[in-house]
Amino acid sequence: MTRIPFVDLKRQYAPIMNEILEKTGMTISSCRFIGGEELDAFCRELAHWWGTSGAVGVSSGTLGLYAALKVFGVGPGHEVITTAHTAIPTSEAVTMTGARVVFCDIDPETYVIDPDKITSLINSRTRAIIPVHLYGHPADMDRIMDIARRYDLFVIEDCAQSQGAKYLDGKAGSIGHAGVLSFFPSKNLGCIGDGGAVTAASSDILENIRMFCNHGRREKYDHQFEGTNTRLDNVKAAMLRTALPHLDRWNEMRQMAARWYRERLEGLSEIILPRSDKKCTHVYHLFVIQARDREVLSAKLKEQGVQTGLHYPCSLNLLPAYRYLDKGPGSFPVAEKVCSRVLSLPMFPGITEDEVDVVCSTLKKIYA
Ligand SMILES: Cc1ncc(COP(=O)(O)O)c(C=O)c1O
């Protein structure tokens, strides 16, 4: 029997479920399903919260990354550098454009792309870098932007896991040339299904992304170029509008849970706790520890009713999908080692101190 779930969306949404049902119900009754007031208002409110000049709602984070890459002109013959330790959508979006993905190793402490290892991967085909703010911890944006300026590259921040995270004073996604959010239901800001949003530093680029996601059209039948259909629905926007005002508080609840974990697990020699760079504000989409024997640990926790997750069990270069890149074991030693040890502990807004206590005492008993 599960005593402590890994994620509990019902608990997170319970206080606002009636409001969500009312707002989405009204939007459904209006029969404005594609585009509409809720979508326009959500994009304005999201941009205000994000500290960006605008935002475009898209149908998923994956397609938001794809749209941004396409609008920056990335395509066949080009290369895009990203981390070997991420969810596959990051690299899929690159391949979808016809460009080649080039993986980079990670920082052993923060698990995000290691800026020291980027420069040696750049050549005349390189067009962009996609730093992924993994688990809710931003990548080293100053150094990445510096490299991008030196080599004339675009930076598209993958913020799927980092809504509200900050690098110095800037919110993740507002620092690069473009930033992409995912509203997959379990993300820090989740939706009633798939969804995402894109922002861009240049208003022209943002307008082109908006058009790309809506068949390249400016107005009805005024197609400036071919794009695709990857819009955020009006009903989903109504739900997201209801949830957005709660995001900062939900992030604080995640940060509080992370503190409870640290207080109880600090000093336990069998595991490594997540670290946070002083320049960054971590929003703990996931609370990921490293354990040498993580399969045994996760099985024993499960026996005791504690659910865990794996993000991600294998660095992307070792997946069958990327065999063609010929980057076998040992190509990205840090990412490969980290992936073999990571284990995500229960983390969601609303997890109680007692529950964190149970997770930690169960973990300690297992090692005792
Ligand atoms: C790091 C990362 N990038 C991109 C995505 C893609 O987002 P979506 O599921 O909305 O397509 C995800 C979500 O799983 C993710 O975790």
Molecular shape? globular
| CATH-scheme architecture of the largest domain | 3-Layer(aba) Sandwich
Number of domains: 2
Give a short account of the largest sheet: 7 strands, mixed
Q: Give the low-confidence spans.
A: none
Task: Write the element-wise H/E pattern from the N-terminal end onward.
Answer: HHHEHEHEEHEEEEEHHHEEEHHEH
* Fraction in helix: 25-40%
Rg over CA atoms: 21 Å
The CATH homologous superfamily of the largest domain is named Type I PLP-dependent aspartate aminotransferase-like (Major domain)
Total number of helical segments? 12
Question: Strand tally, please?
Answer: 13
Ligand inventory: pyridoxal-5'-phosphate
SS content category: alpha/beta
Distance from N terminus to C terminus (CA atoms, Å) equals 23 Å
Overview of the molecule:
The protein is α/β, with parallel strands linked by helices and 368 residues long. It folds into two domains: 9-104 and 111-245, 3-Layer(aba) Sandwich (Aspartate Aminotransferase, domain 2), CATH 3.40.640; 246-367, Alpha-Beta Complex (Aspartate Aminotransferase, domain 1). It is 37% helix and 14% strand. A seven-stranded mixed β-sheet has the order 1-9-8-5-4-2-3, sandwiched between helices. Strands 7-6-11 form a three-stranded antiparallel β-sheet, with no helix packed on it. Strand 2 (79-83), helix 5 (88-96) and strand 3 form a beta-alpha-beta unit. The longest helix is centred in the C-terminal third of the chain and has 19 residues, at 247-265. It is globular. The model has no long low-confidence stretch (mean pLDDT 98). The structure holds pyridoxal-5'-phosphate. The site of pyridoxal-5'-phosphate has 15 residues, from helix 4 and helix 5.
